[in-house]
Structure formats: C-alpha cells, structure tokens
Amino acid sequence: MTKFSMLALALGALTCGPITAHAADQAIPPKPAAATGKTTETKATETKASETTTKPGATKADAAPTSSAPIHKVSTETVDAYVKATFGKAPEEWQQRIVPDDTMKACNKFRNEVPTDVAEAIMQREIKKVAFPADGKLLGDWKAGAKIANNGRGGQFSDKADTVNGGNCYACHQMAPSEVSFGTLGPSLTHYGRDRNYTDAEIKQAYTKIYNSQAVVPCSNMPRFGTNGFLTEQQIKDVMAFLFDPESPVNK
User: Which of 8, 82, 143, 225 is the most exposed place for a label (fewest CB within 10 A)?
Assistant: First the structure.
C-alpha cells in the first residue's frame, strides 16, 4: 500500500448505494459469542472465574484494571502534531495532503459514523467534485486497467519524479477469482461487472465511486482517486474496463 493510499485511508470497495453501503467499507465484525461454540452464559461464567482467580503472591497492584480505572485520552493537538512530524521536511505539497478538508473533518469528528444529515451533506458536496469524461466514454482498456490496479507505486517519498501512479487496488480487494493472495480491507470485486449485468447505471456509479468515493459512500475508506488527482481520467477509464469488460479476468 502506498504512503499516499495509507494516508487517504487514515484521513478518510466499490459497492453501490448511498449511506447504507458504508458497511461494505468496514472491517468484518467479530463473530458473535454463539458462533464460537460458547454460549453467552458460558462466556460470562468463564469471565467471572477469571476475574475472581488470583495468582499466589499477587498484590492489588497486579490486578487487571477495572472499569473505574482512569482512561488516558490523547488530545487532538497531540495527534495532529505527531502526524505532521511524520512528514518531517517534506515539500509543502506533501504537507498540504495531511490537512483534512471539510469532509474529512466531519468523518473524523464522528469517527466515520456520521449522522444522516451530515452524510447527505458530504455526498452533495463531493458529487460536485466529480468530472465525467467529455467524450461520454467511461470504459477504456481492461488490460491497461489490470496493470494500474496491480501497481502499488506512486505517492511515496522514494518515488522518482516520473513515476506513474498506480491504483494499488490489490492491496484492499480481491479482483480476479484466480488470485490466491489479496487484500481484504474492501469487498471482493470478483465478477463485478457480470453481477451487475454491465448496465450503464452501474458503470456510471462505479466511475463516480472511483473518482470520488465520498460522493457515493460518506466516510468511505477508499481514496478519492480522481478528485485528488492521483489517477488520470484515462487511468480511471482503464480500471473501469478491468471491472466491467466481459473479457476481463475479473468477470471470468
């Protein structure tokens, strides 16, 4: 995962649908107690036994903290100062990348669980930042798109000036069913176009999501590739073809 992508994730899946689709961007929740083969009652009993068992020679100070123990909160100023320090003597352009915009401020404030009215405000603001191709064509070359999706370079301090940015999609998604190693932060994209019947509406929705994820899923973990100028219009078209071309390995 590139440093830029990691930053975008820190400050900020290709599922469709507003607001409710946010769940697809989130990590898989832990299995409920019943799924582990232990009932809630059993777990409660085990927990109580653990709390009441004291090792020989243990003192009060050895005891695990209770709910009454003080919670040490880290101030926002401390966190901001630490993040800025990680960029050290980076150029001003890089320094500006860690300054959250209004959307990121809202997501940070509500820890990505924004109220409905805030979510709607985010989408209304971000959709205005989406630029669709003047020629009306949203699909490019899927073979070129495959290279972009599997390219994790770009946006790193160590990159040369002529480095071509990649989408780094593989870091978060499974793309082709034949893949044996892939990221799981986002949902699987296998059969993405086929499952959506390659419709124009789904293609436009996916283009919007790649260009500016916040316009579709408020507080999405996915970077805003187009709005932030990380991928070019042609690169986004090619990635779109990788997702929607029937001949793409994604749809095999």
Answer: 82
Closest CA to 165 of 153, 181, 150, 174: 153
Residue type, 117: D
Handedness of CA 157, 159, 162, 167 (dihedral sign): negative
Contacts of 39 (CB under 8 A, 6+ apart): 33
State pLDDT tens for residues 125-181.
999 999 999 999 999 999 999 999 999 999 888 889 899 999 999 999 999 898 888
State the Cα–Cα distance between residues 226 and 222, nearest whole angstrom.
Answer: 12
> What is the percentage of the chain residues whose pLDDT exceeds 90?
55
Q: Are residues 32 and 198 in contact, defined by beta-carbon separation less than 8 angstroms? A: no
- Could you tell me the pTM of the whole model? 0.70
What's the pLDDT score for residue 60?
43
**pLDDT per residue as tens digits for the range 166-189:** 999 999 999 989 888 899 999 999
